[in-house]
Amino acid sequence: MLNILLKDIAQQENLSVQSSSSLKDLVDLMNVNQKGVVVVLEDSKPIGILTERDIVEILYNGVKLDEKIHAYTKKNLVTTIGERTVGYALNLTLENNIRRVIVVDDSGNFLGVVTQQDLLKYLEEDFYRLTIKVKHIVKKIGDLMSVSPNEPLHAVLKIMVSNKISSVPVTEKGIPVGIISEKDILKLAGKNIPLEAPVSRYMNSPVDTARLDSLLVEVVEVMNYKNIRRVVIVDEAGIAINIVTIRDVIENLEGDYNKFLERKLQSAKEILNLLPEVLIEVTDTGREQLIIWINDKAVSTFGRDILDKPVTSFLPHDTWNNIYSTLIKLGKIEHIKLKKDDCIYELSGFFITTFGKMEQGRFQLILRDITEDIKLSTVDPLTDIYNRRFINAFLMKEIERSKRLDRHFSVVISDIDNFKIINDSYGHLSGDLVLKALARLITDTVRNLDVVGRYGGDEFMLILPDADNETALNVIERLRMNVESLDIQVLKDIKVRLTASFGIASFPENGTSLDDLLVAADEKLYKSKRQGKNQIA
């Protein structure tokens, strides 16, 4: 039954409102649907969600229900398409710490909602085997919070909001005599019941209870039959000691598909959210690999829209296929560089086989943004063009390429004429402004395929692929003329003009090695200086 498609079980009736509706409209609808949730739509697409817990907090903060929904709508939605299965949706709720999933079609149109309680109905009894008792899971739940019958409803709201819990038992001398849930608070809000009223007047009574030795399967049957989400646990004397909720049952399932989840603690996920790297968890269903969890850094970098999408919608098919095959074969992958949007990332990851019915394993992918690291190692920080290290490496590659393809290219070394006078007259900050302005001018003037770098001090190097000496002369003459007509503001009321000298060495005429070409270009640069500067040689 875990293979049932969500589109076949998702419920839509009375579960959505348009964003222009009021909070009162939403509360009324929530009281009708008994699901504890309403999805907010713009036309047919979900843009937000409000739950019973949200409404309880809104009421606690004194917000009037005649206000519009829009300001209180949660924007971080977890949606999944209707073609996904019950088993997949169950994992999705656990991984993202949610109690329901919004189901959409391929175009993002709202199909309905599936809650954890809905999902539990489709789990085989084996998943909470007859041998499992309440005591096996109660030890994992926190201490019981309760109120007395005479306390005001406002006290219940305070406990719910402060402790982020969905229900509060009402006890007399420890004996449960009633219970107030978020759903009850919603009903009271719809009737404008004052929050100063005593709990005893509006609590649900009697209370469904179970003992520590009760079979978990019996507790689940009661929940499903009575359409409730929690049962109060009592000891042998009938004293309330805890609560078991639908989520507690699901989190402690022992089915095959949950073996992986049992090995992971929620605290580990919280730690992962503190890391500066992007973390992405991918489930392998056998047919496809889907992004099922992302950490906070991934949310802030890429948004929640990448959730429940094939990983190939995030990474190119060829890139993912190479990563996938390596992970399957070796179990891990390290230091793979890839480009995403305008950034460069270093990807590492590992694969864990889970041998489940619904998935074959999980991938943990770690992406570290190395854009700035690469920039620092290849780009001159002052002028924002390539540095000497990169330009020399590129020149070596261009020599090899041109030898292999029997092509021409040219190397140009340029030097600012009388740059020392600018520094001495106006200061080094003014000199920096000149260098930055000239770097911008060079990159704007040369061809798109040309490579520009700062070679040191006031020297620049240009590599002109597929340019013989004549082509290079034409490009550099245009550049020389642009330089001599450039006005550069160095101080508030002072502009300077400058000139530059250039030396061109062409491959293969002037050399076929890096050293030969650099020596030739340097000699020609100083030849142009000796000829009176503002020259090309």
Could you walk me through the main structural features you see in this protein, from its secondary elements to its overall organization?
- Helix content is 36%, strand content 26%.
- The chain is α+β, with helices and mostly antiparallel strands and 537 residues long.
- Helix 2 (52-60) crosses helix 6 (153-163).
- The chain is elongated.
- The relative contact order is 0.07.
- Residues 124-130 and 254-267 have low confidence and may be disordered.
Which segments are poorly predicted (pLDDT under 50) over 5 or more consecutive residues?
124-130, 254-267
- The share of residues in helices is 25-40%
Tell me the number of strands.
22
- CATH topology-level name of the largest domain: Alpha-Beta Plaits
Q: What is the SS-derived class?
A: alpha+beta
How many H/I helical runs? Answer: 19
**Biggest sheet record:** 5 strands, antiparallel
CATH architecture identity of the largest domain: 2-Layer Sandwich
How big is the Rg?
A: 34 Å
The amount of beta strand, in percent, is: 25-35%
The residue-averaged pLDDT reads 85
- CATH 4th-level superfamily of the largest domain: Reverse transcriptase/Diguanylate cyclase domain
Task: Indicate the topology.
Elements: E1 16-18, H1 23-33, E2 37-42, E3 45-51, H2 52-60, E4 79-81, H3 86-95, E5 100-104, E6 110-115, H4 116-120, H5 135-138, H6 153-163, E7 167-172, E8 175-181, H7 182-190, E9 209-211, H8 216-226, E10 230-234, E11 240-245, H9 246-251, H10 259-262, H11 266-272, E12 278-284, E13 289-294, H12 296-302, H13 317-330, E14 332-340, E15 343-353, E16 361-369, H14 371-378, H15 388-405, E17 409-416, H16 419-426, H17 428-445, E18 451-456, E19 459-465, H18 469-484, E20 487-491, E21 494-497, E22 500-507, H19 514-530
Parallel strand pairs: 1-2, 4-5, 9-10
Antiparallel strand pairs: 2-3, 5-6, 7-8, 10-11, 12-13, 12-16, 14-15, 15-16, 17-19, 17-22, 18-19, 20-21
